[in-house]
Model the fold of this input.
Amino acid sequence: MVSFTQYWRSKHVIKNFFLPLTIFTFIICACSTKTDEKSSKISVENVKLVNSSEGVQLTGDVSVELENTLIEALKKGVPLEFSSEFRIFKSSLFGVKILFEKKRRAVLEYHGITRRFSVILDGEASSAYYESLTEALAACLSIKDWIFFPRGILPENMEETTIQVQLMLDEEALPRPISIVASSDESWQLSSGWVDVYVGASF
Done:
């Protein structure tokens, strides 16, 4: 809800003052200590296309692990933005032809007062809140029930046709001070890389 009262202006000014201060404090702490016990990673397995009543559907298993550095940043008010990409393209002597592609952006936030997580998918905030980080990450990066398309998009001859999916943390969407650190810190460079999608004989 948008309000133009004096109270809102004051609250906005305070927020704009404390967020950079929080980010600066976090960067100092992150650079002075390195106590993470696990590495951040996104794994995508058993990813394939299956026939459904609505057409062709993507399915697969996604697992995510975050280093303490990212978890602490999240809990200090830094939103994490994840990007999911799916593409089908066909290569030939004349170049590459995109047959189908879809992107999804998910912003993960932590609310310190309620100690719950929220997710904004493609700019639309969900009414659901998540008690655990695992549930929130699943809402951001699960590939089940995400991709549907008509069977006719796939060519009859699947030779030279590539189908891939990629899940990643968008470093460029981070607040500017942290994005500078993230560009040279492996703990922030979180991506599954492009993963090939299995297409069964039924296609």
Observations:
- Residues 1-36 have pLDDT under 50 and may be disordered.
